[in-house]
Amino acid sequence: MKTHKILGGGGTELQVVESGRTSGRSIFFIHGFSQCSLTWSRQLNSDLANDFRLVAMDLRGHGQSGKPQEGYADSKLWADDVHAVIQGLNLERPILSGWSYGPLIILDYIRHYGEDAIGGIQFIGGVTKLGSEDALAVLTGEFLSLVPGFFSTNAEESVNSLQSLLQKLFAKELEVEDYYRMLGFSVATPPYVRQGMFSRLLNNDDLLSKIRKPVLLTQGTADRVVKPVAADQHKAAIPHAQMDIVSDGGHGPFWDDPVSFNETLRAFSQKATGTGAIAS
């Protein structure tokens, strides 16, 4: 595993990890809210590394990346972060794989830099809107009930909300070691970062309909954070997208069933970077 320090938008230092091939086709993983690059350990340390260059970054405000006090509502800064990693590591037409909040950042990038430098896109339990009734409608009530705690500066309240979130992310109960490791990197994201990320007012419907690169929509039917209707909406906006519906899958299928997830991602990535088009 290699580690890189790359300057992203506004000069924020980003922690980036890399495994697999040193050149060729690449997959760039973008984690979700209050997570970090360790989220992708079952991909970075898998046999995907035999075929692809695998890259994951700690988002600004997360993990070992810089944690500026402001800027989390700035679409261009998020876009600049993704661009900086692609350019800094000379990634060759990467597949951008985003989990949960991650698709919002992918779309920030596409809005400001276009699609030319990427090979395709994967949304995993993804959301593409924030700050509106439509955005709230695709989130489950049990997730929304936790949101005030995410912003709390009271340590006990904040930790309790993050513990409750962890219990909702996966269809299978986490091993004790994994649970506390994930809780640790969740807590490492300051409350002001979480609040800044949710303070955005976004509607990417105009952008979704313009996407021409291959798209894979991965959605668990038992997701306790994002309702499956979100994937249906994305498919309606991107007719050529490939649907990957995980029966009884939770919000994080890449962790619950990494073998199946990795096989599907491998097939999609090989076809996307080989032919540049995926049929509906």
Task: Look at the structure and give the mean pLDDT.
Answer: 96
Sequence of strands across the biggest β-sheet: 1-2-4-3-5-6-9-10
The biggest sheet, with number of strands, parallel, antiparallel or mixed sense and barrel status, is: 8 strands, mixed
> What's the number of domains?
1
Estimate the helix proportion, in percent. 40-55%
How many strands in all? 10
Shape: globular
CATH level-3 fold name: Rossmann fold
Question: Which CATH class is shown?
Answer: Alpha Beta
Strand content: 15-25%
**What is the distance, rounded to the nearest whole angstrom, between the alpha carbons of the first and last residues?**
36 Å
Secondary structure category: alpha/beta
Number of helices: 13
Q: Please tell me the CATH architecture by its name.
A: 3-Layer(aba) Sandwich
Order of helices and strands: EEEHEHEHEEHHHHHHEHEHEHH
CATH superfamily: Alpha/Beta hydrolase fold, catalytic domain
Radius of gyration: 17 Å
Q: Which ranges are low-confidence, i.e. pLDDT below 50, for 5 or more consecutive residues?
A: 275-280
Folded structure, characterized:
The longest helix has 18 residues, at 258-275. This protein has helices at 41-44, 75-88, 102-113, 133-137, 141-144, 147-151, 155-169, 176-187, 191-198, 205-208, 229-237, 253-256, 258-275, and strands at 2-7, 13-20, 25-30, 53-57, 92-99, 120-124, 129-130, 202-203, 215-220, 242-246. The chain has a single domain, classed as Alpha/Beta hydrolase fold, catalytic domain (Rossmann fold, 3-Layer(aba) Sandwich). The relative contact order is 0.16. The model is unreliable at 275-280 (pLDDT under 50). It has an 8-stranded mixed beta sheet, with helices on both faces. Strands 7-8 form a two-stranded antiparallel ribbon. It is α/β, with parallel strands linked by helices and 280 residues long. Helix 1 links the parallel strand 3 (25-30) and strand 4. It is built from 13 helices and 10 strands.
